[in-house]
Amino acid sequence: MLKKLKVKMVFVYIAAVTLASVFFILFSILYSYYRGPSMAYNLLSDLKNSSTERVEKIEKAIHDNNETSIRDIYMPKKLYPGERIQVIKMNGSVLADSDPGFNKNKEATIPLQEAVNYLYLYSKQLWEVKYVDKLPYVVEIKKDGQIWGLYIITIPSSSIPNVDHITSPPGTLFWVISLLITIILIGFILLSVYGRILVNPILKLSGIVEKFAHGNLSARVDFFKRGDEIGTLGRDINVMADNLQDANRKIEELDKARRYMVAAASHDLRTPLTAVLAHAEALENGITENPQQSLSVIHNKGLLLKGLIDDLFELASLDAHQEQWERVRLNLTELVRREVVAIFPKLETAGVEIDIDVPEEEYWVSITPRKIERVISNFLENAQKYGESGNWIMVRVCSQNNWVRVEVADRGSGISPEERERVFDRFYRSDTARTSRMGGSGLGLSIAREIILRHDGKIGVDSPEEGYTCFWFELPMI
Description:
CATH superfamily of the domain at 325-476: Histidine kinase-like ATPase, C-terminal domain
Enzyme class: transferase
Distance between the termini: 49 Å
Strand order of the largest sheet: 6-8-9-11-10
Number of helices: 13
Order of helices and strands: HHHEEHEEHHHHEHEEHEEHHHEE
CATH architecture of the domain at 325-476: 2-Layer Sandwich
Transmembrane segments: 12-34, 173-194
Structural class: alpha+beta
Shape: elongated
Largest sheet: 5 strands, mixed
CATH class of the domain at 325-476: Alpha Beta
Keywords: ATP-binding, Cell membrane, Kinase, Membrane, Nucleotide-binding, Phosphoprotein, Transferase, Transmembrane, Transmembrane helix, Two-component regulatory system
Catalytic activity: ATP + protein L-histidine = ADP + protein N-phospho-L-histidine
CATH topology of the domain at 325-476: Heat Shock Protein 90
GO cellular component, one term: plasma membrane
Helix content: 55-70%
Number of strands: 11
C-alpha cells in the first residue's frame, strides 16, 4: 500500500506541475492581451468599421461603371497623423490616394504585392510586425465575385500611442522566473494539503490499532467512506475488528458451553454412578433386603452410563470429523417406515396412537443409513417419551423443491419459543428432572443436528401451538 501512496504522491506532483503550467499559460494570455494586443485589436477594429461602409460604396460605384466618383467616396476624416488611404486596382493603377501629393511620394506607399500579403494581418499578434515602420490595413474590393482592387489604410507606427510599450513582449527571463515560481508555489501548496490529508488519517488509524492492542475491540474507523487507499484500509480495519469481536464472542460462547457441558456431563455421570456404588456397597455389606433389585438397578444404571459415554464419544467423533462415512443411494420413505415399525410395539404398549403419512412415492437421497436411522429413532423416542400425555404421535414424509422432509410431531408438554433456540445445544434440558428420570443423556438432538449437517441438510423444531411439538429434518434429493 505504501508503494501505491508513493505513486499517488508522484501523480499529485505531476498534477501540481500541470496545474501550474495551466495557470502560467492563462497568465501569459491575459498579460499579453491586456499589455499588447488589446490596443492593436482595438485599432484594427476601428479601421475595419470605418472602412466597411466606404468599401461597399466603392463596390457599388464600380458596378455602376462610375470609377470617377471613387475619390469622393474614400476620403474619410483621418484618425491618426500620417494616415494614408489608397484605392489600387489589381493591375497596379492607383485610382485614389489621400496623400496631397497623390501618387508622387512612392516611398510612402505600400507595394501592391505587399498589400496583398498584409490582407489578413489583423489576425496576427502586433509584435509580429513590431519592427515595421507602418501598419497597413487592407480590404478587398470585389466586382462580380472577383477581386477588382484593394482598399489600403496605412498608419505610421510612430502615430500609435505607446507603440514601443505595446509591441514589446516580456523578456524570456521574466517568463522563466514566473513559471518556476508558479510551479514551486502550487506544487508546495498541493503537496502540503494532500500530505495533511494523508497524515491525519494515518495517525487516527495508529490510535485505533493501539486500542485494539489494549483489548478495546469496539473502536472503529469513521472515515472508511473515502475512495482512496486510506478508506480501503479503514474498511479493512473495521472488518477485522468485527471479525475479532465475532471470534471473541464465539470463544466466550464456546467456553461457556464447555463449562456447561463439563458440569452437565459430571452431573449425568455422577448420578447413576452414585446409585451403582450405593447398591454395590449394600450388596457387599449384605444389608440389602432385595439383592436382585439392587443388581437390576446396578445393571440399568450401568447401561445408562454406557449410553452416555457412547454419546460423548460419538459427539467428539462428529466434531473431529474422524470417521469417514460411506454414503449410498437410498429410498428415504422406506427407511422411515422401518423405523416406525421398530418402535411401534413400544407405542402400542404405552397406549400412544400414531398417525403415519408416508407416501408410496420414492424419495431417493444420498446418505449413510445407520446415521439417518439414528436421527429418526431419536425423534421417535423423544416423541414417545414426551408425547405420552397427549397419547398421539404423527410421522410425515413430503417433498418440496428437490428436498425431502421428515416430520415427527407429538402433543405433549410442548416447547416454549425461548427453549426452541437451545433445544439442539449439548446437554440442554427443558426439564432436567424429567429428562434424567426418563434416561435421556441430553446429547441425542445435538448428535442428530451434527449428522444432518454432515449430510448437507437442515434440521429444526416447530411449536405453532401450545402442547404441539414437531421436530423435522430435510435432505436434498438426487
